[in-house]
Amino acid sequence: MKMDALWLRANVIKTIRDFFWERGFLEVETPLLIPANAPEEYINPIITLPSWQLQTSPEICMKRLLCRGHQKLFQISHCWRSNERGSRHLSEFTMLEWYRAGCDYKTLMVDCEEMLQHIAKTCIPESGYFEYNSARIDPFIPWQRISVQEAFLHFGQVDVYDCLRKGLYEEILTSVIEPALAKFDAPVILLDYPAELAALARTKPGDNNLSERFELYLGGLELANGFSELNDPLEQRVRFEEANRVRSNIGQAVLPLPEPFLDTLAYMPPSAGIALGIDRLVMLTAGTDSIDEIVAFTPEDL
Amino acid sequence: MYTVADLKKGLKIILDGDPYLVVAFDFVKPGKGQALYRTKMRNMINGSLLDRTYRSGESFEPASLEERSMEYLYKEGDHYTFMDQQTFEQVVMEEDTLGDAKNYLLENLKVEVMLFGEKAIGISLPNFVNLRVTATEPWAKGDTSGNDSKPATVETGYVLRVPPFIEEGELIVIDTRTGEYSTRVKG
Predict the structure, then answer these.
(1) Nearest beta carbon to residue B26 from set A86, A170, A199
(2) What is the pLDDT of residues A104-122, one digit of tens each?
(3) Segment A53-91, tens digit of pLDDT
(4) Does A84 sit within 8 Å of B27, measured CB to CB?
(5) Residue A253: is its pLDDT beyond 90?
(6) From edge to edge, which strands make up the β-sheet containing B150-154?
């Protein structure tokens, strides 16, 4: 099983590379060891040398490349998040990120459709569908788009802002909303998140409470997270400081701010960027429910 | 103390005063959200199952459980007494706690008793025990009914299906994991 899974994994990664190369994206490599990630409330970086940490995502460096004038970028790299381990999580995992200048999150949704259809055609030509928890997900039928608030009202009969206030957001999302999304035969895009759940995203024009952020779900499995990028350095600093304030309240270390990123953010054109978990995409392609099945080694194997 | 980061299948913790075994565990973390630690746990005293979800920062008291070799002594009402042959310490267990294990308890049988503090909460039996048949119908020669087994009662009072050729007074081997007849003890 594992030997086949590694061939499939290699094929998925090669297919992703071909997909972006054919569309004129520049493949980049940015440093994995950095002085500062974007501070987030609930993501803990792995601190290595004093004042250096492993990247939790390549987004800081990739956005700095947008500031230098690059238009279309992609990267496949390893990311690390401390103490994340489960059937869908590894502390060290493989992330695909891509960025587009001059676009918003709607363009990324189209990219997702085209890429998943291309992967299904190339990597699983016999079946043509993805599989998770014995659900089949067909990328060739029309994709569903549901706003976060609609999803909470419709599937949970609750208001998402109410859930956030009461600290029930994660519980309702994972025990009610995600199982409801698992019933769709097509991929589902959950979009327009409450602004407090999108520290690096632009808010919707005319509505400061909503951000232009979306998540892609297949069979109830969260696969990708994309948004229209915030490019206001003052607002970004406020949000980073707010994240650190929450961290301090819950007893987590306050993290250093990525100052050179904040210094150049004003030069970033309107852009959109997205992160997609390659391991989960391989799980969906292989039709397995466990991330352990599609990596060469788990931490426990080492 | 354990933290949520220690949670995994097989961990034993104390919850509301009872020892629990973690039988299923998953780490759940929606994008940008807080981590949830989903567990399914079995109460090691009454066997009931429990679903619990925890968040970062919660901690657990480890359940210290000890397994000790003891001998079964005797039964009084529905109380069963066991003794540690080294220390001569005795523990008593109720029939409900023993479950099916009571079917194989013959005086002087060596078992492993699971202790939670002072309290005995379960026993592990040898995989096979020898018990004598005390009652069964004789084998009707020439029986063409096609039955390839018949009921038999062994000395503990347990009733099971045995092959037709087994007779009263014979010693048979029973698999305690399935409760089924395994073979006949010859000689």
Answers:
(1) A86
(2) 999 999 999 999 999 999 9
(3) 999 999 999 999 999 999 999 999 999 999 999 999 999
(4) yes
(5) yes
(6) B159-162, B150-154, B128-136, B171-175, B180-184
Q: Do A222 and B30 touch (CB under 8 A)?
A: yes
Q: Which CATH number fits domain B128-184: 1.10.287.1080, 2.40.50.140, 3.20.20.370, 3.40.50.300?
A: 2.40.50.140
Q: Do B33 and A173 touch (CB under 8 A)?
A: yes
Q: Name the minimum distance, in Å, from the CA of B32 to any CA of chain A.
A: 7
Q: Residues A168, A171, A137, CA angle at the centre, nearest 5°?
A: 135
pTM, two decimal places: 0.82
CATH number of A2-301: 3.30.930.10
Q: Where are the alpha helices (DSSP H) in B82-166?
A: 95-98
- Specify the 3-state DSSP secondary structure of A115: helix
How close does chain A come to B66, measured CA to CA in Å? 27
List chain B domain ranges. Answer: 2-62, 65-121, 128-184
Interface contact flag, A251 B57, Cβ < 8 Å:
yes
Domain B2-62 and domain B128-184, same fold? Reply is no
What CATH number does the domain located at B65-121 have?
2.40.50.140
For residue A127, which amino acid is it? S
Please indicate if any CB of chain B lies within 8 Å of the CB of A261. Answer: no
Please list, residue by residue across B36-75, b when 16 or more beta carbons sit within 10 angstroms of its beta carbon and e when fewer do: bbbbbbbbbbeeeeeeeebebeeebeebeeeebebebbee
